[in-house]
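Quick one: structure for this chain?
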Amino acid sequence: MRRRASLVLLALAVFFAALSPLLRWYAFPRLAKIPPNQYQETVLEARPATLLDYSTLKAEKVDRITIVQTLRGNVEESEKIERSAGRDVVVWDALSYVQGPDGKMVSKIPERYIFDAHSQDPVHATGEMVDGDPVSREGIEFKWPFLTEKRDYEYFDAQTRTSSPIHYKGTRDFRGMDVYYFEQTVPWTKVPMPRTMPIKGITAGQIARTGVTRWYTTKRMFWVDPVTGAPVNGEEVHKEELRNAKAMGMAQDTVTVFAGHVKMREDYIVSIVDLVRSQRVLVLLLTSYLPWGFLTLGGGLLALSLWLEARSRRPDEAETPGREEPAPAPTPA
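Got it. Here's what it folds into:
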């Protein structure tokens, strides 16, 4: 019986030892994915800020500028692209909507971001765009890969339509979580006018024909959970201006369009942190808890199997008592 039990334990030890790397290297890439129908809304604010008043053509101080950023999963488009790409693809239709303190629209920039559901690598397909302009992204945007590394990444900037390094600056504590802090500075760059202007009847093309140009710079900061790759906080020190503005009748040749330190609103930080805390447990189950647990369990079962095998080969003193020497046969008379 002991030998039979040791063989069963040995089989279980092999099973759990083999299951450990399968979970990490086979199941994890196939199970840890961004859902194609995900919807997320984030509100950011700049308090105070500088904003161009288009009625007076002067930059004025305002108490607040609000940016509403939405990411909406487009399931129908992702299924179309998956058929030709041969992998799980997510399509995000994003919108960055900026409004002034009076609630009126300042600008809105739509995007379509197409990427691999597990690795977050960009997938180039028809429809990839920023504000109606076709783009071919390099690097990441909005989200880092699962199991983010302590290194620089290429990060796509929607304003310039280009990618540049976003630098890893160390590990920080954020709301009780160990997160990676990343920082990117985009120098002053000439960027296109938004297709949707805040003044009715005026188009980006009309402004461009006057010779006025739009320039932009930002310092971008992210606090990223390294397990899920999800940013739990984001900030930007952002500035836009019009140059050669006298061509439009402005008093100065360089006029600030928008300037401010943009921060995520507190209630959205709390919501995102709670969501990331719950999701990171699922990722850790596939990458750490279960693989190491099964490997430890397999080692314990192997040790128990060997111990039972050794016991089965050793005589049991209780069952085989020492034999006494037989008495000599009597001598015949």
